[in-house]
Amino acid sequence: MSWLSAEEAKQKRQTDIGPPSYKEMLPPVIAKNYGKWKYHEVLTPGTMVHVAESGEKVYTVRVAGPRLLSTKSIRALMDIADKYCDGYIRWTTRNNIEFMTPKEENMALIKKAAEEIGFPVGGIGRGISNMVHTQGWIHCHSACTDASGIVKAMMDELFPYFNEKLLPAKTRLALACCVNMCGAVHCSDIAVVAIHRKVPEIDHDHVKNMCEIPTTISSCPTRAISPDPAKKSIKINPDKCMYCGNCFTVCPPINIHNPEQDGVAIVVGGKVGSLRKGPMFSKLAIPYIKNNPPRWPEVVEAVKNIVDTYAADARKFERVGEWIERIGWESFFKKTGIPFTFQHIDDFTFARDTFRTSAAFKW
Amino acid sequence: MKKYETPLLDELEKGPWPSFVKEMKLAAATSEMANDELGQVEKSYRDKRGYWKHGGIVGVLGYGGGVIGRYSSLPEEFPGVAHFHTFRINQPSGMFYKTDRLREIMDLWDKYGSGLTNMHGSTGDMIMLGCRTEALEPLFAEVSSRGWDLGGSGSALRTPACCLGQSRCEWANIDTMDICNELTQSYQDYLHRPAWPYKFKFKVAGCAVDCVAAIARADCSIIGTWKGKIAVDQDAVKDYAKSGMDIKAEIVDMCPTGCMNYDGSALSIDDANCSRCMHCISKMTKALRPTGEKGASILIGAKAPIVVGSLLSWVVVPFIKMEPPYTEFKELVEKIWEWWDDNAKPRERIGELIEVKGMRSFLEGIGVEAQAQQVYEPRKDPFFFWKEEDLSK
Question: Global pTM?
Answer without folding.
Answer: 0.97
